[in-house]
Amino acid sequence: MPEQRTIPDVREGATITPERTLYPPVEPYDTGMLDVGDGNAIYYEQSGNPEGKPAVFLHGGPGGGGGTDRRRFFDPARYRIVCLDQRNCGSSTPLASDGADLTSNTTWNLVADLERLREHLRIEKWLAFGGSWGSTLALAYAETHPGRVTELVLRGIFTLRREELDWYYNDGASHVFPHRWELYCQPLVEAAFPLSGNKMVGYHRLLFGEDQAVAQRAAEAWTHWEASTSYLMFKDSALEDTPAEQLTFARIENHYFVNGGFMREGQLIDEVDRIRHIPCVIVQGRYDMCCPAATAHDLATAWPEADLRIVLAGHSAFEPNIASELVKATDAFAR
Known about the structure:
- The protein is of the alpha/beta class.
- 35% of the residues lie in helices and 18% in strands.
- A nine-stranded mixed β-sheet has the order 1-9-8-7-6-4-5-3-2, sandwiched between helices.
- Helix 9 links the parallel strand 8 (280-285) and strand 9 (307-311).
- Helix 4 (178-190) runs antiparallel to helix 6, helix 5 (199-207) packs across helix 7 (243-258) and helix 6 (212-228) packs across helix 7.
- The longest helix has 17 residues, at 212-228.
């Protein structure tokens, strides 16, 4: 007989008017640089209530460090909010845009960096919050250190399986955004890279080649593809990264993707039994082009205890319906 699959429960939301909004901006009460070895130092900051519930925000990308609005998903009166810039991006050093050696920038070194930071800040356990690549890192960290995570709040699930990477970087999403796809492919066309090949490999040659102008042009096309497809409704402001930020982001993402995230295929979902006891909310945009809902469904199928919430939105954490559900989740866990 065929294997019986558990169909996960889903909270399906189609509201246009979100129930919650982000908390007001808050400034850090503590910032610092932490030496994590291999010539790397990561930037971290703490906001909110020093005596509050610890929570760590894991940014997307990888390579998408920086930003102040990430603090606003948490009630500053109730949370001790820890944010960091992962290796070689944001305010961490050295930067990928400056030619940093990315050899030691791997999923498992980032997991180790989080443990160093937790110990440095003398935090026993914390809530892990992450979207897109941040959900990848949150799952990898929790599965490695399940005793250090109190809850998980995940958004736009991404596990770096080959089918997920192929969908977004090797043709799938082109059927939804054909014009944007042509702009993404243009640097490969100019370099005479066959479009029938693995475009991530082609981009790797451009981003890490000796011609800096070619690398910068490729970085712009790579980041614009992602930024222009991350919202249900296109936002010009999504394309405002500086050339250095574009090069950092594109190089680190591509480094991870051509290496399969430094994980075996399907590892994070295969090992979810290690964390099924941890309370978890998954918020997923129904029309997320970067990280389609199929991955969130697969994770929730393997993790029936998780609270899967599908909302009318695209990919970005700052789309109103997604932000609303994320804040509702952190509010609930604060209680």
